[in-house]
Amino acid sequence: MNVIQQNAQFANEPGDLGAFSKGLYIDGDWRPSATGAVIAVVDPSTGATLASVPDATLDDAAAAVEAAARAAEGWRTTAPRKRSEILRRCFELMIERSEMLATLISLENGKALRDARGEVAYAAEFFRWNAEEAVRISGEFGISPAGTNRIVVDYQPIGICVLVTPWNFPAAMATRKIAPALAAGCTVILKPASETPLTAYALAALYEEAGVPPGVVNVITTSSPGPVTAAMLADPRVRKLSFTGSTGVGRTLLAEAAKHVISCSMELGGNAPFIVFDDADLEEALDGAMIAKMRNAGEACTAANRIYVQSGIHDAFAEGLSRRMAALKVGAGREAATECGPMITRKAVDKIDRLVKDATDRGARILCGGTVPDGAGFFYLPTVLADVPPDAEMAREEIFGPVAPLSRFETESEAIARANDTEYGLAAYIYTGDVGRGLRVASRVEAGMIGLNRGLVSDPAAPFGGVKQSGLGREGGQHHGIAEFMEAKYIAVDF
Ligand code: NAP
User: Fold this and answer.
1) Which positions are catalytic residues (predicted)?
2) Which of 12, 64, 197, 404 makes an SS bond possible with 221, Cβ 3.0 to 4.6 Å?
3) What integer pLDDT is reported at residue 141 of this predicted model?
């Protein structure tokens, strides 16, 4: 019986989390780190320690790469139909265990259960989608312009992949990489975030149960992500780095990967504009803003970070948004009524507080919230700020919390210029009653993803990713996600 089966009854109580942290997952085996050191996992709603996980060393990382290398040939030659069926089984098991997984995510990340349930459904969908893609990988066949030979293009698994993921979507950021990598025929080492490792280990046990062979997926946690990742990238058998996290760490990893000319996919930070034109449906724009801002309590790379509202609708929008934000129930994620959970760490709360103080010092007005509540845990009250000036730090930096900064604008060109005034380019949102204008503005806003009259863009069937310093490459979508884990091989054929 594996850890998932042992915990199938795990309901809304923390239960025995030790079962989710019994070792590094290497070569289908659970083992302590080479030194026996551990990393504490903290409940952000109380600050108390929930569990501890092994702290991997360079030797452990080498063992994980070795295991992935040993499994590589068997997995790349496994029939696509068989790979597809295993991925499909991963999807089914995730759906069967969704309540347990959502509770676990909610415990270690702090997010509201309703958000955690949404994440599990989204994360599982990457397995279903890639199970369908695994049997549709095709090549190309053509004739050379000179007529001398045929051109055959074969798509092959790129090789061993190192996957590094953040804490804000502990399940989905991992499955968005693992599922296409496995569909393509690659073996992987996942390094999840230190704050939320339990979900990654729970999923590893689930993959094993679904039939993923030993060594195909390896999971290691470490408090030294820089040296451990660098050591894995230095192994010549590693050919891919797929990273989701901050732009700063992404830059460091791109430099590290450059030393070995390793293919990189980078899903980095965001600073999404949310533009509301006068002709937008007010209630729909408010619904969309609440989703775009408050999914995951604002701890999302796609979160609306700058809300630009045209003058004619501004005051009604500000009033409606403040009413909705102030009414949100703040509490521990695992409590059924909670709508806004804690932030991930005290440091994250301090950053949000600093950004709000900076904005108010520069003239922004607090319409609701704006404070750190007393008591245990890492909470920040849902906040709406009006008249946030363009030079406020939060106009440039990710807030990553439940703070909605409003600014007024007059013209379409002003809205576009302000939306593009950032180094980031991940998501953007536009609300207007004129679809022609919506499409026109969408074509000029510099972002990889646009929500037009829609506050949610994430969809496994659509290519997810950013432009500018928000990243390189795409995850999900028809062929896009899987293509990141394949390499084209061209064969010139004379016959
Ligand atoms: P982070 O600090 O960049 O960490 C992300 C991952 O990188 C973690 O596993 C972390 O490990 C690891 N890491 C940290 N320093 C490293 C280094 N020098 N070398 C190798 N790995 C290193 O980001 P985060 O705070 O976890 O996540 C929030 C950020 O992720 C935000 O900027 C958000 O916008 C972005 N994000 C982007 C997307 C997207 O799809 N574009 C999706 C979600 C989140 P430790 O946990 O051990 O430090």
Assistant:
1) 267
2) 197
3) 97
Instruction: Name all domains of the chain by residue range, CATH numbers in brackets.
Output: 3-268+471-493 (3.40.605.10), 272-459 (3.40.309.10)
Does residue 133 carry a catalytic annotation? Answer: no
Check if 221 has its Cβ closer than 6 Å to any atom of ligand 1: no
Element spanning 492, H or E: strand 486-493
Distance (Å) from CA 266 to ligand 1 centroid: 11
To the nearest whole number, what is the mean pLDDT of the chain?
Answer: 95
Mean pLDDT of the 238-242 span:
98
| pLDDT value at residue 19 | 73
Mutate to test the pocket of ligand 1, among 191, 224, 229, 246 (most ligand atoms within 8 A of CB): 246
Q: Which residue among the candidates 267, 299, 339, 398 is catalytic per the annotation? A: 267
Q: Which residue has the tokens 């989701």?
A: 244
DSSP string over 466-481: -SGGGEES-BSTTTHH
Ligand 1 atom 13: residue of nearest CA: 225
pLDDT at 1: 36
Protein residue closest via CA to atom 42 of ligand 1: 301
pLDDT at 204: 97
Among protein residues, the one with the nearest Cα to ligand 1's atom 41 is: 267
The yes-or-no verdict on residue 27 having pLDDT over 50 is: yes
Q: How far apart (Å, rounded) are the C-alpha atoms in residues 66 and 1?
A: 26
In this prediction, residue 18 carries a pLDDT of 73
Q: Is the pTM of this model over 0.90?
A: yes
